[in-house]
Design goal:
The chain has one domain (6-140, 220-294): Alpha/Beta hydrolase fold, catalytic domain (Rossmann fold, 3-Layer(aba) Sandwich). 34% of the residues lie in helices and 19% in strands. The protein is built from nine helices and ten strands. The strands form two sheets. The chain has an eight-stranded mixed sheet, sandwiched between helices. Helix 5 (160-171) packs across helix 6 (180-190).
Length: 295
């Protein structure tokens, strides 16, 4: 067990690639586990504050946060075409099987929410509840175009302080209230020191996944997959400044089924899930899922 209170787990993907996950509170059995799935170029580290809070709560909850292939401590793929949702879904199932997670609440940020929706029709019994963090069945193309401008194209910082400045220049419009300390912590989750250089915590070839994005072409929706979540509790977290999950999409989601909506002020894509009130809402929702699982 490491100092922050989690164990590093390593699992082989079906094709042999080494995958990594952080496992918090692995001994907790009174509550459903929470599986945390990060955004496209994000890592398990994004969930550290939330995971420690839930794993150390009065009723501890196991939290498994996963690094997709090519991100964090998971191995990079020799073939960047494998950075694909279908492959990542297969990887997810391999990790959960290896770690003995048969049923859980899923919290998916952005791409992680897409994976949660894709999982629903394939393994409906595995999902006891779902939290979609700033993502829905319709993804606004203008937000993807913005993301396309920086994934795999970040300038190489000279230091972590420089990295924090880079992120502030790029994302202050999405996160106008972050402090200098917040930007430094953001940089430490986005960059790493390797061979004397400051580089991203992901394979820059992830940019290949966005090459086909065209703002003039509609992006296929996931309404069928979203509807596969109809039988489980659902929470939507939306950044009030988001350009990925638009209010119109949320309205359509609410027309199709009951759900809990929590909008995070002064944050865009995607909410950081670190503030006490956000953590409390997630904890409360998870507790409701526990009750539903026991009834």
């Amino acid at each position: 067990m490491t100092a922050p209170g989690y164990a590093d787990r390593y699992v082989s993907a079906p094709d042999g690639l080494r995958l990594h996950a952080r496992d918090y509170g692995a001994g907790a059995i009174a509550a459903l586990p929470l599986v945390c799935l990060p955004g496209l170029a994000r890592t398990a580290a994004d969930f550290d504050v939330l995971a420690r809070a839930l794993a150390q709560a009065e009723t501890p909850r196991r939290v498994v946060a996963i690094d997709y292939r090519g991100r964090g401590l998971s191995a990079y793929d020799d073939d960047p075409d494998h950075y694909h949702l279908a492959v990542e879904l297969t990887d997810l199932l391999a990790v959960l099987t290896a770690l003995g997670v048969a049923r859980a609440i899923f919290l998916g940020t952005s791409r992680g929410g897409l994976l949660t929706m894709l999982l629903a029709p394939h393994r409906p019994g595995m999902i006891a509840g779902a939290i979609l963090n700033d993502i829905g069945p319709v993804v606004a193309p203008q937000g993807l175009v913005r993301i396309k401008t920086y994934i795999g194209k970040l300038p190489e910082p000279s230091s972590m302080a420089d990295a924090a400045d880079v992120l502030k220049r790029l994302f202050s419009g999405q996160f106008p209230k972050l402090t200098a300390e917040d930007w430094m912590r953001f940089a430490e989750r986005t960059f790493q020191e390797r061979d004397g250089r400051i580089v991203p915590t992901y394979d820059p070839r992830l940019a290949r996944t966005l090459e086909s994005i065209d703002p003039e072409q509609p992006i296929p929706s996931l309404w069928k997959e979203f509807d596969a979540l109809a039988s489980v509790p659902l929470m939507i977290i939306r950044g009030a400044l988001s350009d990925i999950l638009l209010p119109a999409t949320v309205a359509l989601m609410r027309e199709r089924r009951p759900l809990e909506l929590f909008e995070v002020p002064d944050q865009g894509h995607a909410p950081l899930l670190m503030e006490p009130d956000v953590i409390a809402r997630i904890a409360s929702f998870a507790a409701q899922c526990d009750c539903g699982a026991r009834s």
